[in-house]
Every structure is written in C-alpha cells, then in structure tokens.
Amino acid sequence: MIRAQDFGKVAVLYGGLSAEREVSLKSGKAVFDALRRKGVDAYAIDAGKDILQALAAGHYDRAFIVLHGRGGEDGVLQGALELLGLPYTGSRILGSALGMDKLRTKRVWLGAGLPTPEFVLLDADSDFAAAVKTLGLPLMVKPALEGSSIGISKVTETAQLPAAWQTAAKFDSCVIAERCIIGAEYTASLLGDQALPLIRLETPRAFYDYEAKYLADSTRYYCPSGLEPQQEKRFQELALRAFETVGCSGWGRVDFMCDAQGQPWLIEVNTVPGMTDHSLVPMAARHAGIEFDDLVWRVLESSLAMAEAKHV
User: Which residue in 148, 225, 279, 302 is the catalytic one?
Assistant: First the structure.
C-alpha cells in the first residue's frame, strides 16, 4: 500500500505562461487541494520563467504537472524535469510533444491505420477554394499547437475560410483545415491502461469551443454515453490504441467524433486534461466509482512508476 509520505515533497506545477493559463490555475488549485486532503506534502508553484530554479531550490521529490498548453504540456517541461532527475506525472517527452502537435498526431495515426479526418495545411498563400474542393464543407480550422479549442473556427462557407485561417494563425504558424465530422462527439478519459466510461457531449453552440468547455451552462454531458456496451468497448479500445500509438502514458484523454454510419474519427489527444469543475476526466472517473481525490492520487502514483524505471 502506498502511503502519503511515500510521495515525499510534491511540486504541483500550474498556471504557466500559455494561452490556457486561466484554466490551469483552476485545475492546479483543485489538484493541490485534493493532495493536501489526502495528506500529501504538496506545494503549489505557479510555473514562471524561473520554474527550474524554483524546483532545484525546493528539493522536491516529484512533480504533478497541471500545466495546459505550450511550455508545460508539449515536452519542454518534461525534458527539463528529466535533466533534473525529477519524476513527474503523465506522458514522457515524446508523447507530450506529439500529443500537443495536432498535425504530427494525425500523421502518426494515419501511419498506424487509425481513422482521423482528412486535412490540408493552410498558409497565407493557400488556395482556399481548392482546400474546400478537396475537403468539402463544413471545415474545422485550427492552430496545430493550441488546446482548449483556442483559435478554432467552424467554416460553413468558402468565403469564411481566409478569416478562419487568420484567427488560427494568430496562435501558430501551422494551421490545419480538417473535414468536419457531422455526428455525436465523445471523449475517452484514460487512467493508466484503463479507459474510463465514455462521455457524449452536446452543445447548442456551433461546436464544443472554449465557451462551451469552461463557461457555458448549456453544455450537456452524458455519462453513460448511450452507446451499446459492445460499441462503447470498441471505442474505448480505439482510444487506448490511439493514445499509446502517439507515445502517451499515465493519464490523458482522447476526443473523437462518430458519424451517421457509426464510424469513429479521432480528433485529438490531450496529455494534461483539465481538472476543473467543468472537466471531463473527473466526470468519467466519478462514474467509474473514483472520486476526485482518489483520481488525483492515482495520477500521482504514475510518478512512482517513473522513479522505479530509472533504477532498473
């Protein structure tokens, strides 16, 4: 049995400098409070540019990463923690870097024969009409290296595409136009090698955007998802395979759409999902009988496995 003292001194890394800072602040506080309630010697650290100095000076035993977006979820921090010899939660360097990059994730999935919507890359010189001819309408236009639906637009007319590209390009020079799947939206939360119950999402908005994710009360979450047990199991297995194919581990989330023919289409992977009162992983865990504090504990346990691996 693992005891709270076995974790030692734990740094909860949250906040950060990315566009998802506000969400991370909420997630980090929730995680910190849960660890404290469980008796863990946890310390909340708003990860600024001096984060490495703060970690070295604090003599921490491990880190619980609750940083969303660039700098915390994309392999940069993970690499630094590896150099410090500090075990941490979640995916390692490769899985974090690939998982944050929607373009490379899709290419890896396609290479593995996994279903993901067709796409094209856009830039200032793109023939937008040709992109529409290739993919059809509607389209989802998104920056490759942002999360929480930041910079994403739904395009229903060709004339909207240049503006959608400009919106996405404000956040990243790599912009994807992706065929929009019409159908039900699902998310699969993953904890270790276990897929938690699927959640089906519904929003009256144009799509499941930042507002729908974190602010709106009109978003509906269905868990159980309403799928037949065998179909849910098949989708959970697909999500696990998609997660592992990208090199992810520990915990995370895979989002996908299901079209009218029942075909699932992988959309993206999230290696440090939100842990706010609107977040999906805690919701799925609760339905599986795992309360929030126990969920946080189990995520922290993944850092013990990393520490043991270093001594093999």
Answer: 148
